[in-house]
Amino acid sequence: MKCNRFELEKISxxxxxxxxxxxxxxxxxxxxxxxxxxxxxxxxxxxxxxxxWITDSIKLGVQIFIPVLSLLIAYMALSLKLKNTNIENERRxxxxxxxxxxxxxxxxxxxxxxxxxxxxxxxxxxxxxxxTGRFN
Length: 136
Fold this sequence. Notes:
Structural class: mainly alpha
C-alpha cells in the first residue's frame, strides 16, 4: 500500500479500534488481520461505507443545488416579467401621450373656429379677391 505514515496511522487506528487488525513487534513491526477484519473485507464493509459517503455527498449537493437553481430561475422570471411589464407600460404611455397631443390639437382648432365664428371680421381675415378686386 502506497501511503505516508500519517495516512497509515489514520487508517490503521480505526481498524484497530474496531478490532479488525492487530499490531505485532517481533523481528519487525507490522499489522495482521483479525477474523473480524476478514469478515469486513469479505462483506465489503468499507467499500459500502465509501459508496454511501459518495451517495450522501451527491444527495447533499443536489439538495443545495436544486433550491438555489429554482431561486435563480424564479428571480430571472420575475425580473423578465417586470421588464416586459415596464416596456408595455411605456408603450401605453407613449400611445396615450400621442392621443393627448391629438386631442389638444383638435381643441385648439375648435377654439380657433369658435373664436372666428364669434368675431367674423378680423384684420387678417380681410383679403382682396384677385378676380374682382374687391375686399372680402
